[in-house]
Amino acid sequence: MTMKIAVAGGTGTVGRKVVAAVESAGHEAVVLSPSRGVDLVTGEGLDAALAGCAGVIDVANTAVWDRESAERFFGTVATNLVEGCARHGVGHLVVLGIVGTDEVDLGYYYGKRLQERIVSEGRVPWTILRATQFFEFAEQNTARAEGDVVELMPMLSQPVATEDVAERLVELVTGEPQGRARPLAGQEKLTLAEMARLLFERTGDRREIRVRELGEVGAQLASGALTPSGEHDRGKRTFADYLAALEV
Ligand SMILES: NC(=O)c1ccc[n+]([C@@H]2O[C@H](COP(=O)([O-])OP(=O)(O)OC[C@H]3O[C@@H](n4cnc5c(N)ncnc54)[C@H](OP(=O)(O)O)[C@@H]3O)[C@@H](O)[C@H]2O)c1
């Protein structure tokens, strides 16, 4: 049976892949994002977009790093989505979280913790999938840097393909609400600096990579807390597959 699935952040890095996965599973995707006329912070356009949807996948994001801004964004978006789903009888809200966010005190992660709390205490049946950093994370973190030196967080990850995340989110939204789903990670552990070095080798980027000193938070980021410690699923694709497919 064809379902109408709303994808919050459906124009983003993983969101585009989610929309493709929804459609290739034979369902209809409705994109909730400001560039498509739906703002999940103000609520503009949300009611019209949610009408008739069976499920929502939330992969909306914003580039804020301090705790206050991250809590404001993720808290408001989660509240608006829970209330919107409840108003329209949407039966399943699936949210993408990040492995290890309660063990690492990065400002952004406080927003992710609040998002999970609002959804898990809300009145709409829910599933939270925690995933590790995307293969695109190296590109996301190096694209912003200006000058010849790129400074990166001292982060240990087990990065995963956005296609693998997208496929899993679609399996989840079309199934029964699970609460906390088994986390999803990639196949190998890599530091963010290693990912960036491999990316730069592939793209011919000659900028120097340095690892930033980040004190206590840096130690938490490097500790392996962002890699899954218990039972988890592994994506099919490798970082080498991702690099090989890049158009340079
Ligand atoms: N990046 C990672 O490595 C990683 C790893 C694990 C989990 N996650 C989680 O995955 C999610 C998506 O991350 P991403 O890197 O794919 O994001 P992204 O590329 O930054 O995309 C952000 C998306 O959110 C939309 N958006 C921004 N403000 C909005 C608003 N007010 N209302 C509705 N939509 C809004 C954007 O829409 P427009 O295009 O219209 O601006 C865009 O579609 C986040 O929850 C993030 O925490 C990320």
Automatic annotation (TrEMBL):
Q: Which GO terms describe its molecular function?
A: protein-containing complex binding
UniProt domain NAD(P)-binding: residue ranges: 9-174
What PANTHER family does this protein map onto? NADH DEHYDROGENASE [UBIQUINONE] 1 ALPHA SUBCOMPLEX SUBUNIT 9, MITOCHONDRIAL, NADH-UBIQUINONE OXIDOREDUCTASE 39 KDA SUBUNIT-RELATED
The protein's name in its UniProt record: NmrA family protein
The species this protein belongs to is: Actinosynnema mirum (strain ATCC 29888 / DSM 43827 / JCM 3225 / NBRC 14064 / NCIMB 13271 / NRRL B-12336 / IMRU 3971 / 101)
Recall the taxonomic lineage recorded for the source organism: Bacteria, Bacillati, Actinomycetota, Actinomycetes, Pseudonocardiales
